[in-house]
Amino acid sequence: MPIPNLNYAKAASTDQFLSLVQVLRRLFRIELSALVTLSALAGYLFFGGIWGSDAFLLAAGVGFLAAGCSALNQWQEQDLDSRMERTQQRPLPTGQLSPQAVLLLASLAISSGSLFLSVLPGNMPLLLGLLAVIWYNAVYTPLKRRSPFAAIPGAICGALPPLIGWTAAGGTLFTHKSLILAGTLFVWQIPHTWLLLCRYREDLQRSGLPNIFKTIPTHRLLRINNCWMAGLFLCYLLFPLFHFIQSEILVYLYISGLSVIMIPVFKISDTAGEIDSISKKFHLINISMALFLTVLILDRLIA
Question: What domains are defined for the chain?
Answer without folding.
Answer: 27-301 (1.10.357.140)
